[in-house]
Design brief:
mainly alpha, 9 helices
């Protein structure tokens, strides 16, 4: 890769975006252990000190990657939840499809997102992004409860059950135990079973 001349600086904000894009590519191809600010500078074609203007250390870079991932996931979830006239089952299926689609396309990033989500030192901005992603599901559950479409109970607990089921599918796909296309094709049935339960009626 040709090294970028210092006489050709990035516009404000462009360098940070370029660094994150390069870091995500490294994460996908080589794993989190291969990420370093110095290698990132080399891959992006800037001085070794340049990434330090945006990320004070590797942990800050990982937080920024996780936050960017959650923001992209939240955009996908918001778009899926914005479906007027759909039944509850259709709305949940749309959310599930958005989540699984993101998981299938970004397994390494999703793993990092979950790792940073549980870190006690995570930033307030990252914590808010995590809350927003779960909040999309929880609000749908609470609204459905008010309409009598879902059993009463703690909406956060019910959301956890549904989210665990979806994340389980994502983990099975990432571990090659399930085929991504087949799983997405059968998602309607999965959500139907999740809503009606397994006991015969």
């Amino acid at each position: 890769m040709m090294r970028m001349s210092t006489s050709r600086p990035y516009h404000h904000g462009d360098l940070r975006a370029a660094l994150l894009k390069s870091a995500e590519r490294t994460l996908r191809e080589k794993g989190v252990g291969a990420l370093s600010l110095r290698e990132l500078a080399r891959d992006t074609g800037v001085s070794h000190a340049a990434p330090g203007r945006h990320f004070k250390d590797k942990q800050a870079l990982l937080d920024a990657l996780a936050l960017d991932g959650y923001e992209r996931l939240n955009q996908a979830l918001d778009a899926a939840a914005d479906g007027p006239g759909l039944s509850l089952e259709q709305r949940i299926t749309a959310l599930a499809r958005a989540y699984l689609g993101f998981a299938v396309e970004n397994p390494e990033l999703l793993e990092l997102m979950f790792a940073r989500k549980h870190d006690p030192d995570r930033t307030a901005q990252l914590a808010a992004a995590v809350d927003r992603s779960l909040g999309t599901f929880t609000r749908m559950v609470a609204d459905a409860q008010q309409r009598g479409e879902i059993v009463p109970g703690d909406p956060e607990r019910i959301t956890t059950v549904a989210a665990a089921s979806l994340h389980g599918l994502a983990a099975l796909i990432a571990g090659c135990a399930l085929d991504a296309e087949e799983t997405l094709a059968g998602l309607d049935e999965h959500i139907h079973l999740l809503l009606v339960g397994l006991r015969p009626r």
